[in-house]
Amino acid sequence: MIPREVIGVAEVPGGPPLRLVRHGGDFMIMLDRNELMSSRMSGSEIALGVMTCQRLRSAAAPRFLIGGYGMGFTLRAVLAELGPDARITVAELVPGIIEWARGPMLAMTEGCLDDPRVEIVLQDVGATIAAGKGAYDAILLDVDNGPDGLTRPGNDALYGMPGLARARAALRPGGVLAVWSAEPDAAFTRRLQQTGFAVDEVKVRARSNGKGPTHTIWFAAR
């Protein structure tokens, strides 16, 4: 049996540390006993990027904000879908995540962090949203395991009514807020609707082959 090996620890401002675990050729990002992300199950993170782009086919020179780099699956999916005039800002609160991407997970990164369309900002995505009124065609959030502050309590502000209102204000007309979750959450769906979004709640499998657990993505259109 191949043992799991902790190969990195990253501090989270206002929250417990994250651990990067290697198991053979696979990587996992862990928070305590919670597996936040795994290289073995990337299908729903890829779907987050692809399905958001599909909803914005008519946008010229689209501007995207991705909250949380993770393992980069969503970023790479967006880059594959969008043309050379697109601009993607990745807001990552934890510098260690980017260090892992440029270090032990470099082979997975596939150069996405150095793509000229990409800007990495090391800050809370909530602050980026608040500063970007009318700036984005799409905002993609995958910073917790769902619409609550799992990685740190401060992230709760992203998913309440005031945070959703700020996200809506940061979107251009017709823009989309996309939120990834490991589980459904009826209360979050209602909050999106009450904020004025038109909501499409989609179920996707964790693995690209259509297997694995079912995850939820909300696509909330302004």
Tell me about this structure:
The chain has 7 helices and 11 strands. The strands form 2 sheets. Strands 7-6-5-8-9-11-10 form a 7-stranded mixed β-sheet. Strands 1-2-3-4 form a 4-stranded antiparallel β-sheet, with helices on one face. It has 222 residues and is an alpha/beta fold. The protein has one domain: Rossmann fold (3-Layer(aba) Sandwich), CATH 3.40.50. Helices cover 26% and strands 34% of the residues. It has helices at 43-54, 73-81, 95-102, 106-109, 125-130, 161-170, 186-194; strands at 5-12, 15-23, 26-31, 34-38, 63-67, 87-91, 118-121, 136-141, 171-181, 198-205, 214-221. The longest helix has 12 residues, at 43-54. The mean pLDDT is 93. Helix 1 (43-54) runs parallel beside helix 2.
